From TrEMBL, chain A:
This is Beta-hexosaminidase. Disulfide bonds join C70-C113, C285-C336, C510-C527. Residues 175-492 form the Glycoside hydrolase family 20 catalytic domain. Keywords: Disulfide bond, Glycoprotein, Glycosidase, Hydrolase, Signal. SUPFAM superfamilies: (Trans)glycosidases (SSF51445), beta-N-acetylhexosaminidase-like domain (SSF55545). It is an enzyme of class 3 (hydrolase). The gene is LOC100187142. Residues 1-19 form the signal peptide. The keyword Zinc-finger does not apply. GO terms for biological process: carbohydrate metabolic process; glycosaminoglycan metabolic process; N-glycan processing.
């Protein structure tokens, strides 16, 4: 009860309970551990104990007279009105704070409306909750982030009233690229599961869905130019595919939440399933002068490979609205290329006998050229650079190998490339206990480099590779572990105290559960609204 | 039509498919759809089938009794359940493809050769015989209702969906019985409350895996969700939330009835004298006050074994528990008893001095345990304890069952416990809360419980095992996919013959079984890259 007055005080109390540690067992996280706290923590929060009643049943958002009116914001108003009215608070509305009831949050958008989120979007906002409440942002994306923050600030006071503390927030993200990778090739993920996780991404201010849509195991992407790719390469062409309509639905759902959808079409390795529907695309492997029935990476020595890539990526470009495509480029084995006499002959003719990294470079550079000509910007996995392939200056390099990623970050940024960090945040790797603390504590800028190099770090990604997850278990495996990464990428570097974060993260986890995301528990605990509890 | 042994064919096909693709693939071969259609998990003791299949008349399928069969409510309820499962197994295509020319399998005739029983027990007979041949009606014969339940589960698993969407069954003869009598799953409702519907969902999962004991670790340090009518303050003050996070008498009865109908025992655990912090909240004076120097420091330790009120409390509570939980067994816990608080308490030290046991806290523990055993026995309970009770040298009654959980040479512990003549349960290799990346089910599957030094008589004292999913990191949001199909590996280890232990042979069957659970509404997680013919949709 004492915790309800003011959440700064509350944090202290919870901290004290944790610190005693005399229990002989882990102290459980009990219900509302940090009511009204915001995850990820905003840049600057000035809160006071003074409470305002929020009229959650009749709550609405209204543009200021001078504000831009944008469709994306209109849709967000509807979503957040619903979310606030369903916040689980019984809301016995009485006039306890009659002079301080907030039933409208005025919204001011100072810049022009934008339709598609981008790497350059402005996500900053200023939020005032008090006698003159206002959400002010220069773009519609800032409004989205501010609405999410506002919705998290509402809590239930002991009398059952929905309240928010008088608060002034100035917020903007630390990094521009805050991504989540989902893999729909090792296991197919139904569209409703993808949408559920986009919803959760919005609750955590993630702004990139890195869609690892195809891989060696299956090709669920429906291409209208090359329909055999999914007809022969998907797990089931009847129901385990993504049609153009489904993809458009995912992109639209994400767009309305300020989330970019960056597709990954990983080549030249990781392409076994592609070959099933596109004969001649992959390299034929040889044993003792004869094809052995196996296939390797895409054959980089024939023109048909590049015609295919160009046609496919042109289609992809027309569908996925984001400026970026992820070109993959990881884990390219050279042994099949080495075994193939035609490739060896071609390499001799091009003065690169035996230099398979050079062959990879030939491929990657052509793909990059094709991609650039189509109008795509691109991200690649770190091996492309590690193998000495010269990529274009504007390439974004994603660091994933978790063997001294700080050394790799130093190297990639020293070469002048912009960088995304994923290595510490491979969420499919499981250990017993509270691994979110490890994710939370990893500081992306902890590498040797100049300030200029550090500025080349544009963000990071939490990756949940699909070998062991599908619709049955993906959401609880992802949340709230990915939330730790979300705060690392949004909040200031100084927000890095695991103990201070724990009660807020428990609160946030419970909020996600209450909103319909089956986020798993951090620790022994309960939520006021536990998942599937019918009581 | 081919008459060769079906399972030999199917395994060979899978092996061939694997070897064809393995040559080149530098990635794990996915498990594609129906990897072992019509296979049974856990594998029966004897399962002979041929490639000949009979279409199943899904919509009109009938369960009937043989003319001389006993008829029981419990079997009738199972007819209804499995009728629904069979209808649902037809997926989306059940209304298409009605072959009229081939002989159809139109029903299952059940022959129960013994009187009805109401509650499953450690001694129940779960054996059965099942036959599907060219007759239109398959037959299931058993010496108890429990065998009928197990046989119906096997029968339901024999049905599979052909490429044309027709549900079919192979010509099959199964003779089956479990290897071990106690095949348990522990769920912990104290670290996190598990909603009743989540418990029921997992009892369904247990039935699909022929697990026959739900070990309900119902209370612990963190919370006391069990509602006692004798001591209502226990949940009023010890539950996480005394209104929403509790198990009422009705909830407990619902769980027990649901489990009973599926031949699953519900064994509650009331762990004492440690692991009892939440008990102390509603029962002042029960726990030992810890001291620093000569004054209480505000902390509490294990139950105070030196005062009579403790034993009155235990007797009243367990008497109530005995009447709500119908099983002959209670689990008394007894693990991880810390002596430091007892050591700090002057009243306890005085008591020990006057009872000539100064400084011997194991002896004090023994005093407590023995009194609790006496009380439990007087109430009519048989009991299970965690291994420390015996490790600490506490002399327990000869009929005590000892559960081995410490995963540091559990084989040595089994040798020791059985050499002392106690019956034993093995849990140590199967702590499912210890998660790691990848296919840990293979490790669970490969652990052979009888691999310890001991005589044949000692081996017989091993009556089974338990897969334990402790609750620190699971609740309604994730408990079910974390449990299944990992617990299925333990289920087969405990049911099937010792010789059924080949991980590679088990893989396609387990994938098929996992997909079957998904289709039946259990969100069992994937083993490996791949897909199910009917994937989970939420």
């Amino acid at each position: 009860m004492g915790c309800r007055d003011f959440f700064a005080v509350c944090l202290l109390l919870v901290g004290a309970v944790h610190a005693t540690g005399k229990l002989g067992y882990p102290a459980p996280l009990l219900g509302e551990t940090s009511p009204g706290s915001v995850w990820p923590q905003p840049h600057t929060v000035t809160a006071s104990p003074q409470l305002y009643t929020i009229d959650i049943q009749a709550f609405r958002f209204e543009y200021l007279q001078t504000s831009q009116r944008c469709h994306v914001a209109d849709e967000a108003f509807k979503r957040y009105q619903l979310l606030i009215s369903r916040s689980g608070i019984k809301a016995k509305f009485h006039d306890k704070y009659s002079t301080s009831v907030i039933s409208v949050l005025p919204v001011m958008i100072t810049g022009p409306c934008e339709d598609m989120p981008s790497l350059d979007m402005k996500e900053g906002y200023i939020l005032d909750v008090g006698s003159n409440p206002l959400l002010n942002a220069s773009s519609v994306w800032g409004v989205l982030r501010g609405l999410e923050t506002f919705s998290q600030m509402i809590w239930e006071d002991p009398s059952g009233q929905a309240v928010a503390n008088k608060t002034h927030i100035i917020d903007e993200p630390r990094y521009a690229h805050r991504g989540l990778l989902l893999d729909t090739a090792r296991h197919f993920l139904p569209v409703n599961v993808i949408l559920e996780n986009l919803e959760a991404m919005a609750y955590n201010k993630f702004n990139v869905f890195h869609w690892h849509i195809v891989d060696a195991q299956s090709f669920p992407y429906v291409s209208t130019v090359y329909p055999n790719l999914h007809l022969k390469g998907s797990y089931s062409s009847l129901n385990l595919v993504y049609t153009p309509e489904m993809i458009a639905q995912v992109i639209e759902f994400a767009r309305l939440r300020g989330i970019r959808v960056v597709p990954e079409f990983d080549t030249p390795g990781h392409t076994y399933s592609w070959g099933l529907g596109q004969p001649g695309l992959l390299t034929t492997c040889y044993t003792g002068g004869k094809p052995n029935g196996d296939v390797g990476p895409i054959n980089p020595t024939v023109n048909s490979s590049y015609t295919f890539i160009k046609n496919l990526f042109t289609e992809v470009r027309g569908q996925f609205k984001d400026k970026y495509i992820h070109l993959g480029g990881d884990e390219v084995p050279f042994d099949c290329w080495k075994s193939n006499p035609n490739i060896t002959t071609w390499m001799a003719a091009h003065n690169m006998s035996g230099d398979y990294a050079k062959l990879e470079q030939v491929y990657i550079q052509q793909v990059i050229d094709i991609t650039g000509a189509i109008g795509f910007s691109y991200i690649v996995w770190q091996e492309v650079i590690d193998n000495g392939v010269k990529a274009k200056d504007d390439t974004v390099v994603e660091v994933w190998i978790n063997n001294h990623p700080e050394v790799e970050m130093a190297k990639v940024t020293a070469l002048g490339y912009r960088t995304i960090l994923a290595a510490p945040w491979y969420l499919e790797e499981l250990t017993v206990g509270e691994d979110w603390k490890k994710y939370y504590s990893y500081e992306p800028t902890n590498f040797n480099g100049t300030a200029q190099q550090k500025a080349l770090v544009i963000g990071g990604e939490a990756c949940l590779w699909g070998e062991y997850v599908d619709a049955t278990n993906i959401s609880p495996r992802l949340w709230p572990r990915a939330s730790a990464v979300a705060e690392r990428l949004w909040s200031p570097e100084t927000v890095n105290d695991v103990d201070a974060a724990t009660p807020r993260l428990h609160q946030h986890r419970c909020r996600m559960v209450q909103r319909g995301i089956p986020a798993e528990p951090l620790h022994p605990s309960y939520c006021v609204f536990d998942w599937m509890n019918r009581k | 039509m081919l008459r060769q042994l079906f399972f030999v064919i199917s395994i060979a096909v899978v092996a061939l498919a694997n070897s064809q693709r393995k040559l080149s693939l530098d990635f794990p071969t996915p498990l594609l759809g129906n990897t072992s259609p019509g296979s049974v998990w856990p594998q029966p003791e004897s399962h002979v089938s041929t490639a000949e299949t009979f279409p199943v008349a899904v919509e009109s399928f009938m369960f009937t009794y043989a003319s001389k069969s006993n008829k029981c409510d419990l079997v009738y309820e199972a007819f209804k359940r499995y009728g629904a499962i069979i209808i649902n197994s037809a997926g989306d295509q059940k209304l298409r493809f009605r072959p009229l020319t081939t002989p159809m399998l139109t029903g299952l005739e059940v022959n129960l050769m013994a009187p009805c029983e109401d509650y499953p027990s450690l001694d129940m007979d779960e054996s059965y015989a099942l036959d599907i041949n060219s007759m239109a009606v398959a037959t299931l014969t058993a010496k108890s209702v429990w065998g009928i339940l197990r046989g119906m589960e096997s029968f339901s698993q024999l049905l599979w969906e052909s490429d044309s969407g027709q549900i079919v069954a192979n010509k099959t003869n199964i003779i089956d019985k479990p290897r071990y009598a106690h095949r348990g799953i522990l769920l912990d409702t104290s670290r996190h409350y598990q909603p009743v519907n989540v418990i029921l969902e997992n009892i369904d999962g247990m039935a699909y895996n022929k697990i026959n004991v739900f070990h309900w670790h119902i209370v612990d340090d963190q919370s006391f969700p069990y509602v006692s009518s004798v001591y209502p303050d226990l949940s009023a003050k010890g539950a996480y939330n005394p209104i929403t996070h509790i198990y009422t008498i009705e909830d407990v009865a619902e769980v027990i009835e649901y489990a009973r109908l599926r031949g699953i025992r519900v064994v509650p655990e009331f762990d004492t004298p440690g692991h009892s912090t939440s008990m102390g909240k509603g029962q002042p004076g029960l726990l030992t006050e810890c001291y620093t120097g000569s004054s209480p420091n505000g902390n509490y330790g294990p139950i105070n074994p030196t005062v009579n009120t403790t034993y009155t409390f235990i007797q009243n509570l367990f008497t109530e528990v005995k009447s709500s939980f119908k099983d002959a067994y209670i689990h008394l816990g007894g693990d991880e008893v810390s002596f430091s608080c007892w050591q700090s308490n002057p009243a306890i030290n005085n008591w020990m001095k006057s009872h000539n046991m100064t400084g011997d806290y194991k002896k004090l523990e023994q005093v407590y345990i023995q009194q609790v055993l006496d009380i439990s026995a007087a109430i009519g309970y048989s009991y299970i304890v965690w291994q420390e009770v015996v490790d600490n040298g506490v002399k327990v009654k000869a009929d005590t069952v000892v559960e081995v959980w410490i995963n540091n040479h559990p084989d040595n512990e089994l040798a020791k416990v059985t050499a002392l003549g106690y019956r034993a349960l093995l849990a140590a290799p199967w702590y499912l809360d210890y998660i790691s990346t990848g296919e840990d089910w293979k490790r669970y599957y490969s652990y052979e419980p009888s691999n310890f030094n001991g005589t044949a008589e000692q081996k017989k004292l091993l009556i089974g095992g338990e897969a334990c999913l402790w609750g620190e990191y699971v609740d309604g949001s994730n408990v079910t996919p974390r449990l299944w199909p990992r617990a299925s590996a333990v289920a087969e280890r405990l049911w099937s013959p010792e010789t059924v232990n080949d991980v590679d042979a088990a893989t396609p069957r387990l994938h098929q079984h996992r997909c079957r659970m998904v289709q039946r509404g259990i969100p069992a997680e994937p083993l490996h890259p791949g897909y199910c013919k009917h994937e989970w949709r939420n």
